[in-house]
């Protein structure tokens, strides 16, 4: 098992969300369940998050709780193969041609646009 300093040195992804109801910002670490804090400014919220991460990891080490390591983008190639109906392939090719971009770029645009709708 790693030490507190070794866990603190790992690059855990931080999510910062504006709290429109209460004001300020809420910060959490997706790879550290339950480690969440807030602050009136982004800077204060981030500073509080570092303190919260330290306290969470210290408590987990004391209690023998498993500590997840950060998810790594190195596990993802950025590529996947997708089989689609020929009619959809044709539509995507036609739309991307009209936009003057590759079909790959057009599909990334569509996926990211759709993801943004469901991420709210």
TrEMBL record:
Which residues belong to any copy of the HicB-like antitoxin of toxin-antitoxin system domain? 17-78
Q: Name one GO biological process term.
A: regulation of DNA-templated transcription
**Domain of life, per lineage:** Bacteria
Under InterPro entries, the record lists: Arc_rbn_hlx_hlx, HicB-like, Ribbon_hlx_hlx, TA_system_antitoxin, TTHA1013/TTHA0281-like
Q: What is this protein called?
A: HicB family protein
Lineage of the source organism?
Bacteria, Bacillati, Bacillota, Clostridia, Lachnospirales
């Amino acid at each position: 098992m790693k030490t507190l300093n070794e866990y603190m040195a790992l690059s855990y992804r931080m999510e910062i969300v504006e709290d429109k109801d209460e004001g300020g910002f809420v910060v959490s670490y997706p790879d550290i369940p339950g480690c969440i804090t807030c602050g009136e400014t982004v800077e204060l919220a981030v500073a509080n998050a570092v303190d919260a991460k330290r306290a969470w990891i210290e408590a987990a080490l004391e209690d023998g709780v498993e500590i997840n390591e950060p998810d790594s983008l190195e596990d993802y190639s950025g590529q996947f193969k997708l089989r689609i109906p020929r009619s959809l392939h044709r539509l995507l090719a036609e739309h991307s041609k009209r936009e003057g971009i590759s079909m790959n770029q057009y599909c990334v645009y569509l996926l990211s646009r759709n993801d943004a709708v469901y991420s709210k």
